[in-house]
Design brief:
alpha/beta; three-stranded mixed sheet; 10 helices
């Protein structure tokens, strides 16, 4: 790794979390190396470190020292061998490994892909919901279903499947309705990609969750469910690990969304003004259209009955099923309107 490329992964110990996120989202391997003024490596930051910090109330304007891992795993340059690196990748389930010299300066970063650590084939089922009409896109979807719209000369749904394949997923259900033959004829049974695709055909529109009631599977493994119009760089290994270790019934991927209020907002105690906030930003987490469920979620749906996803989630919460959220800072776009289709074509390069 040349010096210039190596430095792209580094951030100063005086930087803020927002700076680290920019590097994570821009560079291969999803790691940030934190160095002090003497160029000594003092910590590392991965997606997981950022996510845990966000869940604990850390904001993007906090110093990186609040989120970095000071007890990070690394190899000394003089001890490096591909065989030893492979052992560490497998033993610790990591995807990147800094190589340091005797002064703890960064020499290189080794990625699991570099030494052919391949993702194990996963037995989890993936459900891609691709039955909607895409009305918000107007005439664009008159003759083409939204999941088949091209982003950089490849249908959105194929981008989604190819990314999931890279994580070892091979069993897919695709829910279809509107212009379903376009999707079925293009993807087929998945054999060309070495995967299995089965189709769930709605006879009528069943909403964003109702089609899940038609699924026929026999598994105890978590189910990945995602919208067929969402492009994201979410780490599905980490998402599954998060779901399994949190012992939850369902996990919702959530994206932070900020809205600027273009007025002075009054804060008051009854009728007494305590402060005016001039044009504040309001941030909240919104549903990103990617989920993990315990397969028993089907028991909460009536077969063939319309249901949208918020209704299902609220019903699960009402029934005391634990639902948590997984904050994502990675690239994400919902291709729901012409503007976001243009945005995806400009930005999506995987």
């Amino acid at each position: 790794m040349d010096k210039t490329r190596r430095e792209r992964y580094c951030v100063s110990s005086g930087a803020i979390v927002k700076d680290a996120i920019k590097i994570l989202n821009a560079q291969k391997g999803k790691i940030v190396i934190v160095v002090n003024s003497d160029n000594v490596v003092v910590g590392t930051i991965t997606d997981g470190d950022i996510r845990r910090a966000l869940l604990n109330g850390v904001t993007v304007n906090y110093p990186v020292e609040k989120v970095m891992n000071k007890n990070f795993l690394f190899m000394r340059q003089e001890n490096y061998s591909e065989q030893e690196a492979r052992k560490l990748f497998i033993k610790h389930s990591i995807k990147q490994l800094p190589i340091l010299d005797t002064n703890k300066n960064l020499v290189s970063i080794i990625f699991s892909d570099d030494i052919k650590i391949e993702s194990d084939t996963k037995e989890n089922c993936v459900v891609i919901m691709a039955g909607g009409m895409g009305r918000r896109l107007g005439k664009i979807t008159n003759e083409c279903p939204k999941p088949m719209l091209l982003v950089n000369n490849k249908p959105i749904i194929e981008h989604i499947i190819d990314r999931l394949r890279s994580y070892g997923f091979s069993k897919y259900y695709v829910t279809v309705n509107y212009l379903k033959e376009n999707i079925k004829s293009y993807l087929g049974n998945g054999s060309k990609k070495g995967i299995d695709i089965q189709y769930i055909e709605e006879e009528q529109f069943l909403g964003t969750a109702g089609s899940l009631s038609l699924l026929e599977f026999d598994t105890h493994l978590p189910i990945i469910v995602l919208n067929g119009d969402v492009l994201s760089m979410v780490d599905f290994d980490e998402l599954l690990h998060y779901f399994e270790t949190s012992k939850t019934f369902g996990t919702i991927c959530a994206r932070e969304h900020s809205i600027n209020i273009p007025y002075g907002v009054i804060q008051a105690d009854k009728d007494h003004v305590t402060k005016i906030l001039e044009k504040p930003d309001h941030s909240c987490y919104v549903n990103a259209g990617i989920y993990v469920f315990n397969p028993a979620f089907k028991n909460f749906l009536d077969k063939g009955v319309y249901c949208d996803m918020p209704t299902l989630i609220n019903e699960l919460v009402k029934k005391k099923c634990k639902i948590n959220y997984f904050p994502i800072h990675e690239y994400w776009v919902d291709v729901g309107v012409p503007e976001t289709l243009i945005k995806a074509n400009d930005e999506w390069d995987t």
